[in-house]
Structure formats: C-alpha cells, structure tokens
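ARCHIVE CARD
CATEGORY: sequence design from structure
SOURCE FIELD: tokenized fold
FIELD CONTENT:
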C-alpha cells in the first residue's frame, strides 16, 4: 500500500502510522504528508520522519482548485491510497471518485472517526458523546464516500465511560484506542478482511 497521509492537527495518528510501518514498507509505505494548516503539529512532527511534506492551504482557493493541488501532489509522490488522520475537511465527490476502486467497490481513502458510527457524525464527536453522558463511546475506521462519515466500516472499537471521567480522561482513552484501531484497520484492508 503506497499511501499519503492528510492531516490538519497535532499529527498523533500520523506519527503512529509512520512509526509503526517505518520498517514494514512491504505492507505500507508512507510517501508523504499533506497538511492544509500552516504551523500544524503534524508538519512539526514530520520534520523528524525523513518523509516529504507539503502545505496546501485552502485560503481563498475554491475547493476544486484546492483538491486539484492535493491530487497533483499525491500523484507526484506516486500515492495510490489516502489515509486521513485528523484531516478536518470534507472531500468533494469528484476528488473521491479519482480514488474509487471498481474491484473493491469503495474508495482508496481511509478515515478514522472518534465515535461509534453512525452516532456523532461530524465535528466534536468526543465532546458530543461526553455531553450526552453516553455510557460508552468508541472509534470507527471507514472508507470515505461522498457523505459525512457514512462510508463502509472497516472496524470499530468501543471504550466505556467511567463515572469519575473528566472530559480529558474520556478523550485520552479514545485517542489511545484510535492508534490501535487505525493500525488494525490497515492490516484488515491489506488482507481484504473487512466485508
């Protein structure tokens, strides 16, 4: 799997993927990191990874132009898969269609979402689950389609909310699970074991 990571934030999921697969390139090779935010944590972290990075900010660009730039960079690096790791933009249907795999019946774009989908789609999923006093929450890894967090699931992992949990405790437990789930999901995709 030759992949490019798209990330907007701190880059902990990106770092987890890069470090796990750095000596397993026969399974997955990360060819580059693209961020849409100047000064993002992921770009700072990536300085120590010996992997090319690109900052492609949207700013005043139309979405189609922004996505064209991302696609151009992915192709320049030779990427076939996209791994979204805290990428905070919804990708347009034309862009997604460029990564659609007829044989597999889904896109070659994978995303991780911090809830047990279909609950709490979209932004602030941990916050909304915590505010709703949900007795448990979880993380979902899925293929990206044209909807918001509606693509075919690869796997889900659940964690309980403890009575004494602060929001930070709750979120930290979820983020720990994200790191485990993303790696497991990549292996499931590599084996074709997700239907």
């Amino acid at each position: 799997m030759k992949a490019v990571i798209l990330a907007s934030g701190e880059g902990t999921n990106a770092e987890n993927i890069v470090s796990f697969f750095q000596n397993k390139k026969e399974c997955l090779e990360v060819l580059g990191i693209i961020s849409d935010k100047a000064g993002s944590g992921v770009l700072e972290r990536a300085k120590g990874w010996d992997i090319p990075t690109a900052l492609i900010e949207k700013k005043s660009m139309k979405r189609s132009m922004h996505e064209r730039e991302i696609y151009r960079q992915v192709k320049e690096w030779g990427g076939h898969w996209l791994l979204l790791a805290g990428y905070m933009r919804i990708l347009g249907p034309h862009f997604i269609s460029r990564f659609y795999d007829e044989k597999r019946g889904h896109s070659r774009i994978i995303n991780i979402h911090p809830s047990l989908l279909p609950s709490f789609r979209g932004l602030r999923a941990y916050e909304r689950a915590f505010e709703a006093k949900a007795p448990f929450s979880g993380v979902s890894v899925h293929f990206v389609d044209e909807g918001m967090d509606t693509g075919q699931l690869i796997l889900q992992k659940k964690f309980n909310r403890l009575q004494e949990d602060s929001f930070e405790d709750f979120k930290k437990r979820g983020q720990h699970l994200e790191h485990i789930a993303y790696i497991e999901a990549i292996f499931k995709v590599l084996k074709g074991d997700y239907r």
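CARD ANNOTATION: The mean pLDDT is 95. The longest strand covers residues 136-143.
SHELF: design records, drawer C
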